[in-house]
Structure to design on (315 residues):
């Protein structure tokens, strides 16, 4: 199943189920007589809620069906927590080389190249992440708003996981039982700010990641049963119709099961939490030192998950 949140002309946001053919949406709020008000409620409801929705979709009243074309889609849900991982070694290697070449002094660049010719061994020992802000969540039709310090504004194509089942100390073998579904994540980044924030005295990214509409998700939330192998999904980025990069989730250095097992160590995961798996190699501008200009349209695609397009606007 594919779930969306859409906005109707009167301004009300409603949960919806994308029907077969992806041309129509079942208004779940109306079809359930107000029982289902948000997609987060669907995630938290688990299998009993999904069974209820299957019954509603089996013989829907036509008055509750709306055409998908022309609907304004919002972020499918507002996650209760956001963890953003980095698990692609090649992305780090390409990014570090680009920074060394374009940003630092010649001496520092030479030292940097020698020090991080490949990601350090600690990168391969366990997945690393930082915690993002869920107040900056935006949807597939929202603009990318350049912050005042966003000279080098960048996109990052990521696969995001939505947790659907509470758990702690989750084993790798059981990890996928705790996944509700997947969506596309554009981790919009202000690189110039990040250059100043990430260093020996840093506690992690801050304003380089945290600004309005910096966490874009969509276009819909795809349930895990429709994604039989999330570790082998092809993806691509287009800017103004030009293919900027192609990649695959098969290039992860740590699997989704590894990530979930590590995250749940000593900590309970709850339905509605979002785990972003990190920027895919070739699918962010910093690797080729190509950043976004005002008016650019950024389209992110992951096979089996969907596509979304957002436009860059000035602050």
């Amino acid at each position: 199943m594919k779930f969306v949140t859409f906005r109707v002309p009167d301004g009300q946001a409603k949960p919806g189920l994308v029907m077969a053919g992806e041309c129509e949406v079942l208004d779940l709020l109306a079809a359930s007589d107000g029982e289902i008000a948000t997609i987060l409620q669907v995630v938290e409801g688990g299998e009993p809620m999904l069974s209820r929705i299957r019954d509603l979709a089996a013989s829907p009243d036509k008055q509750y069906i709306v055409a998908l074309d022309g609907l304004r889609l919002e972020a499918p849900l507002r996650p209760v927590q956001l963890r953003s991982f980095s698990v692609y070694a090649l992305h780090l290697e390409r990014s570090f080389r680009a920074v060394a070449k374009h940003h630092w002094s010649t001496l520092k660049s030479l030292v940097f190249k020698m020090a991080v010719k490949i990601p350090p061994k600690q990168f391969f020992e366990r997945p690393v992440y930082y915690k993002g802000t869920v107040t900056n969540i935006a949807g597939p039709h929202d603009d990318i708003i350049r912050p005042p310090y966003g000279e080098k504004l960048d996109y990052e194509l990521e696969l995001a996981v939505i947790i659907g089942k509470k758990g702690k100390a989750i084993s790798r073998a059981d990890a996928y039982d705790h996944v509700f579904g997947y969506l596309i994540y554009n981790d919009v980044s202000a690189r110039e700010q990040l250059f100043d924030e990430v260093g020996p005295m840093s506690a992690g990214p801050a304003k380089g990641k945290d600004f309005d509409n910096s966490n874009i998700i969509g276009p819909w939330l795809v349930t895990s049963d429709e994604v039989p192998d999330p570790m082998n999904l092809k993806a691509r980025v287009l800017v103004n119709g030009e293919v900027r990069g192609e990649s695959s989730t098969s290039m992860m250095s740590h699997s989704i099961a590894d990530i979930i097992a590590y995250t749940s160590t000593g900590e309970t995961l709850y339905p509605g939490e979002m785990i972003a798996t990190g920027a895919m190699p070739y699918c962010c501008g910093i690797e080729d030192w190509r950043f976004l200009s005002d008016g650019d349209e950024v389209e992110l695609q992951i096979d089996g998950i969907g596509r979304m397009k957002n436009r860059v606007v000035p602050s």
User: Anything to note?
Assistant: The chain has a mean pLDDT of 93. The first helix runs from residue 28 to 31. The longest strand covers residues 179-187. The CA atoms of residues 31 and 59 lie 11 Å apart.
